[in-house]
Design brief:
This protein is mainly α and about 120 residues long. About 65% of the residues lie in helices and about 0% in strands.
């Protein structure tokens, strides 16, 4: 297990673990998220998951009206923005916007923004 330095990183780490617990309440267990958080720490896990489209529980959380509790939303919270680059925050914002709007239109926007 990775030891987390810094109180802000430790707080983010705990929030990332809480996402797993929240997902479990709606019948989804994002095992990859939990494993990455435990092995690499919350910030490193978030960065890795941002780079891997399709590994997110954002769509499932959105279906239950809980997109604001997603990893992407967590990255964008004011208290955690300093942990991520502007590019990482933009990607999180794009993914969040794409998933909370029309599915097909959101995917096209996400692809266009990355290009």
């Amino acid at each position: 297990m990775k030891r987390i330095a810094g109180s802000l990183e430790a707080e983010f780490h705990q929030h990332m673990l809480a996402i797993y617990d929240l997902c479990a309440t709606v019948g989804f267990r994002p095992v990859l998220l939990r494993r990455l958080v435990l092995l690499q720490g919350g910030v490193a896990a978030a960065r890795k998951l941002l780079e891997q489209p399709g590994t997110t529980g954002l769509e499932r959380l959105q279906k239950h009206g809980m997109a604001d509790a997603s990893m992407e939303a967590l990255i964008l919270r004011p208290e955690f923005q300093s942990l991520f680059t502007a590019q990482e925050r933009k990607l999180a914002s794009t993914l969040l916007a794409a998933r909370t709007s029309s599915r097909s239109r959101g995917r096209l926007n996400a692809v266009a923004d990355r290009g």
